[in-house]
């Protein structure tokens, strides 16, 4: 008998070992689903603030969990799987308890699934299922326990657990329901997060707050009974309201986020230099600035710390996605005509090369360079002005004179040293480049102005930490300071806060682009307003539209910081004290037209054919200072004339060169043909 019992025992042990080996092989043969679920791409500030997130491929919010409140973990394990740290994926005691309760009550009272089994279900998106589903979950759970650590399994649960709607994972839940990260949660918040995954749609607090509160309070009571919370803490948490709505996920700097995602499609996290509070403030400012204006207008702006090259805020459009405003277009990187915003660079280059000084006298009167005859924006001419006055008044003639003297290719080269990629119509630089005849972006202009603000040394602006680069020298420190000092003398636009900025505006041809850029001792900023499709905006001027926004940008930066003092090598002197070559500038190739008040031959005009029929030749004058002298083929035919209509004796048939000289020595000429029919 004893021998038989021993044989049975040996057989049982053999069968148990064989069964264990079969079970081991069964578990080892389990084909596991992918264990690295896709998570949302995120853009965060350096302090960890979430600024932008993208849904995963199926449209769900599934954020990497990050740091999670330890008390929430304790509550989760105490409620869902108190032997999580010790079982092998399946908890036999929990299964026996669940089966006993079901048998006693005639229905399922509690589940026997461990957290690992729940992870198995979530990985395969298999639903709760019946016995076949439960068996599959057990098999996958046992296999998971062999492949992963307990913390890795817990992290999968924290990533995949459903929290209502398209929310998956604890971090997506805390962002949507509480507007915060999960690193610090109240007992009430933690209890709701424990309760929601069991029935995420039925307990959604925005749809059924009573069901959500009831489920949460049930968790709180259980936690008090388990000693995870004190009775007082649980009672206090039960008095907290449940959230009434699902919060939107942050969508700051959406154009930049899309750019970064396109540039590095495999990256799940993009850390940026942006200041989240400033970014939010300036996005609101962009919307406010266009209120009451043409609904098709857009606005872009950018702010950087020119000392470090770090971009602090960037707004690509007034309203992201707004169809009427082409809100999908990132206008910080769209090439546009810069209008007059390149003039500070032209003057800085001229000062650096010794062609001029802020007090150098320069002509602002009609001038031609071959077939190119630029005019000022208002059609008026000021005569002789200082370079400082020309820059502040944004006159066109003086800046073209200086560009011609240096050569427009040197201006393009300076733009390239500043990090820009100028887009030239026809591929060749002409004198019109100085007045905006080139394509540049807002980002490039802000980078250029950052170089001027830094004493003439370029810097590569960057949105990512550690990506800034020290650039090449644009101009000398003295030239950069002198241009900044001139621009800082401009009065703020009407209605703008009083502050000392070095700033410049620009308006492109046809009123397509309105610009304003400026800097103080720390920050550089730029504003663009216009229509993204390039349609003209009648009456749009940089000084009226963009400049007030620029000053409000600096106001939201907390005011301005003092501009740099003059460097020792900067020459500060009036015109009379300048070296003789710097007192007055005149371009070598410029052909100046007559001054506005110079004498003009109103009649006969150039090329006229006249039939005098033996009568006198009547000359009619406009402008000029009497007395006048009239020459015919170089011979005086009238002198001392004070009237503006002078009758000359019949000079006979043929071609005649007429010249009128006024008291100032200024001349008007015309060549005419006379006939005697």
UniProtKB/TrEMBL annotation:
<feature type="domain" description="Glycosyl transferase family 51">
    <location>
        <begin position="66"/>
        <end position="223"/>
    </location>
</feature>
<comment type="similarity">
    <text>In the C-terminal section; belongs to the transpeptidase family.</text>
</comment>
<feature type="domain" description="Penicillin-binding C-terminal">
    <location>
        <begin position="596"/>
        <end position="671"/>
    </location>
</feature>
<keyword id="KW-0121">Carboxypeptidase</keyword>
<keyword id="KW-0732">Signal</keyword>
<dbReference type="Pfam" id="PF00912">
    <property type="entry name" value="Transgly"/>
</dbReference>
<dbReference type="GO" id="GO:0030288">
    <property type="term" value="C:outer membrane-bounded periplasmic space"/>
</dbReference>
<dbReference type="GO" id="GO:0008658">
    <property type="term" value="F:penicillin binding"/>
</dbReference>
<dbReference type="Pfam" id="PF06832">
    <property type="entry name" value="BiPBP_C"/>
</dbReference>
<dbReference type="InterPro" id="IPR023346">
    <property type="entry name" value="Lysozyme-like_dom_sf"/>
</dbReference>
<keyword id="KW-0511">Multifunctional enzyme</keyword>
<dbReference type="Pfam" id="PF00905">
    <property type="entry name" value="Transpeptidase"/>
</dbReference>
<dbReference type="GO" id="GO:0009252">
    <property type="term" value="P:peptidoglycan biosynthetic process"/>
</dbReference>
<dbReference type="GO" id="GO:0008955">
    <property type="term" value="F:peptidoglycan glycosyltransferase activity"/>
</dbReference>
<dbReference type="InterPro" id="IPR001264">
    <property type="entry name" value="Glyco_trans_51"/>
</dbReference>
<dbReference type="InterPro" id="IPR011815">
    <property type="entry name" value="PBP_1c"/>
</dbReference>
<dbReference type="GO" id="GO:0006508">
    <property type="term" value="P:proteolysis"/>
</dbReference>
<dbReference type="InterPro" id="IPR009647">
    <property type="entry name" value="PBP_C"/>
</dbReference>
<feature type="domain" description="Penicillin-binding protein transpeptidase">
    <location>
        <begin position="301"/>
        <end position="509"/>
    </location>
</feature>
<dbReference type="InterPro" id="IPR050396">
    <property type="entry name" value="Glycosyltr_51/Transpeptidase"/>
</dbReference>
<dbReference type="GO" id="GO:0004180">
    <property type="term" value="F:carboxypeptidase activity"/>
</dbReference>
<dbReference type="InterPro" id="IPR001460">
    <property type="entry name" value="PCN-bd_Tpept"/>
</dbReference>
<dbReference type="InterPro" id="IPR036950">
    <property type="entry name" value="PBP_transglycosylase"/>
</dbReference>
<protein>
    <recommendedName>
        <fullName>peptidoglycan glycosyltransferase</fullName>
        <ecNumber>2.4.99.28</ecNumber>
    </recommendedName>
</protein>
<comment type="similarity">
    <text>In the N-terminal section; belongs to the glycosyltransferase 51 family.</text>
</comment>
<keyword id="KW-0328">Glycosyltransferase</keyword>
<comment type="pathway">
    <text>Cell wall biogenesis; peptidoglycan biosynthesis.</text>
</comment>
<feature type="signal peptide">
    <location>
        <begin position="1"/>
        <end position="23"/>
    </location>
</feature>
<keyword id="KW-0808">Transferase</keyword>
<keyword id="KW-0378">Hydrolase</keyword>
<keyword id="KW-0645">Protease</keyword>
<dbReference type="InterPro" id="IPR012338">
    <property type="entry name" value="Beta-lactam/transpept-like"/>
</dbReference>
């Amino acid at each position: 008998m004893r021998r038989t019992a021993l044989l049975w025992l040996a057989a049982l042990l053999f069968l148990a070992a064989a069964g264990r080996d079969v079970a081991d092989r069964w578990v080892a043969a389990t084909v596991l689903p992918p264990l690295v679920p896709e998570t949302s791409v995120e853009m965060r500030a350096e302090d960890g603030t979430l600024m932008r997130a993208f849904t995963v491929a199926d449209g769900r919010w599934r954020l990497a969990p990050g740091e999670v409140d330890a008390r929430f973990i304790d509550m989760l394990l105490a409620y869902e799987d108190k032997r999580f740290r010790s079982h092998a994926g399946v908890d036999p005691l929990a299964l026996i308890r669940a089966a006993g309760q079901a048998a006693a009550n005639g229905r399922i009272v509690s589940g026997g699934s461990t957290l690992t089994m729940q992870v198995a279900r979530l990985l395969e998106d298999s639903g709760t299922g019946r016995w076949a589903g439960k068996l599959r979950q057990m098999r996958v759970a046992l296999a998971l326990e062999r492949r992963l650590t307990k913390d890795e399994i817990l992290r999968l649960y924290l990533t995949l657990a459903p929290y209502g709607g398209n929310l998956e994972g604890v971090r997506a839940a805390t962002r949507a329901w509480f507007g915060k990260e999960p690193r610090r949660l109240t007992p009430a918040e933690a209890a709701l997060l424990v309760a929601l995954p069991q029935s995420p749609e039925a307990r959604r607090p925005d749809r059924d707050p009573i069901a959500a509160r009831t489920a949460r309070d049930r968790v709180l009571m259980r936690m008090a009974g388990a000693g995870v919370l004190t009775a007082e803490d649980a009672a206090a948490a039960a008095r907290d309201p449940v959230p009434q709505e699902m919060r939107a996920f942050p969508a700051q700097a959406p154009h930049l986020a899309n750019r970064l995602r396109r540039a590095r499609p495999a990256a799940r996290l993009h850390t940026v230099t942006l200041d989240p509070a400033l970014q939010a403030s300036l996005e609101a400012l962009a919307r406010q600035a266009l209120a009451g204006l043409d609904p098709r207008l857009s606005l872009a702006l950018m702010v950087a710390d020119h000392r470090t090259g770090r971009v602090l805020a960037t707004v690509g459009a007034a309203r992201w996605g707004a169809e009427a405003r082409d809100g999908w277009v990132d206008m910080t990187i769209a090439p546009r005509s810069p209008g007059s915003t390149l003039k500070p660079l032209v003057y800085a280059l001229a000062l650096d090369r010794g062609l001029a000084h802020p007090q150098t006298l320069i002509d602002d009167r009609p001038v031609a360079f071959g077939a190119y005859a630029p005019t000022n924006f208002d059609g008026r001419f000021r005569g002789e002005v200082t370079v400082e006055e020309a820059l502040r008044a944004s006159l066109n003639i003086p800046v073209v004179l200086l560009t011609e003297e240096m050569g427009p290719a040197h201006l393009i080269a300076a733009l390239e040293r500043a990090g820009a990629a100028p887009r030239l119509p026809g591929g060749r630089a002409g004198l019109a480049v100085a007045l905006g005849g080139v394509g540049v972006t807002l980002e490039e202009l802000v980078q250029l102005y950052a170089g001027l603000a830094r004493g003439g040394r370029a810097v590569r602006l960057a949105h990512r930490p550690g990506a800034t680069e020290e650039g090449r020298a644009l101009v000398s420190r003295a030239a950069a300071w002198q241009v900044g000092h001139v621009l800082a003398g401009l009065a703020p636009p009407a209605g703008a806060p009083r502050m000392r900025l070095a700033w410049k505006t620009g308006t492109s041809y046809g009123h397509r682009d309105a610009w304003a850029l400026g800097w103080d001792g720390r920050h550089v900023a730029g504003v663009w307003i216009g229509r993204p499709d390039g349609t003209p905006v009648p009456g749009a001027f940089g000084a009226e539209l963009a400049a007030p926004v620029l000053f409000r940008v600096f106001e939201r930066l907390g005011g301005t910081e003092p501009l740099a003092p003059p460097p020792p090598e900067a020459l500060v002197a009036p015109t009379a004290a300048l070296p003789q070559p710097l007192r007055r500038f005149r371009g070598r190739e410029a052909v100046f037209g007559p001054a506005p008040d110079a004498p003009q031959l109103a009649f006969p005009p150039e090329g006229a054919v006249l039939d005098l029929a033996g009568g006198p030749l009547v000359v009619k004058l406009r402008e000029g200072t009497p007395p006048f002298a009239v020459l015919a083929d170089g011979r005086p035919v009238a002198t001392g004339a004070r009237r503006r209509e002078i009758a000359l004796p019949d000079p006979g048939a043929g071609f005649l060169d007429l010249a009128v000289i006024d008291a100032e020595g200024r001349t008007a000429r015309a060549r005419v043909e006379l006939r005697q029919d």
